[in-house]
Amino acid sequence: MSELWVFLRIGFQHIVALDAADHIFFLLALAAIYRGRNWRSAFWVITAFSVGHTVSLALAVFDLLPVRESVIEFLIPVTIVLTGIENLVLRERAAAGRHRPIFAGLFGLVHGAGFAGYLKSLFVANVALPLFAFNAGIELGQIVLLAMAAGVFWIADRGLHAIARPCTTEAFQLRLVGVSALVTIVATGWAWTRWPS
């Protein structure tokens, strides 16, 4: 099996594994605010996040970015909390906000630094190919997770619409608030337990 395939698979498995729940929750928080008609805005936000984590992953692996693991592990759930709060406060206006790709890129820097320690532990010599393949695997994993989330969100929106039809609250808003509140509460707990010492 080629080195490229091995690290591609490791990156993919690393993002979809249950121990990557914080990264999965961040993707859910990012995606919760979008519907099918907002696909362009969602594309730019996800692209900015990917660029951010690619840059910090590369810098950290090449020892150009000093990373204190305890601080990064604390900041990852903080990014989830901030994204969830933005979803709850701004609701649909956040989906169209021009600031959202910038924040996603900055938050991507944090998440990429979180992957760096794990990736560095796997290297023995040349890092260029493993870095590329690992990052490509993460991107593929994110695409799979986001596609699954979009499907679940679509089904939830249709189901909530059928249930809440007599209500004035739109099904999308119910789903947005539910997902955002859940990820915010869980991530707040993670941030509390990961407070750097």
Can you characterise this structure?
- With 197 residues, this protein is mainly α.
- The protein has one domain.
- Helices cover 79% and strands 0% of the residues.
- The protein has 8 helices and no strands.
- Helix 2 packs across helix 7.
- It is globular.
- The N and C termini lie far apart (42 Å).
- The relative contact order is 0.21.
- The model has no long low-confidence stretch (mean pLDDT 83).
What brief labels describe this structure?
197 residues, mainly alpha, 79% helix
SSE order, one letter for each helix or strand: HHHHHHHH
The helicity comes to: over 70%
Amount of beta strand: under 5%
Uncertain segments of ≥5 residues (pLDDT<50)? Answer: none
Number of strands: 0
Q: In a nutshell, what does this entry contain?
A:
This protein has helices at 3-16, 21-31, 39-61, 69-90, 92-96, 99-120, 128-163, 171-193.
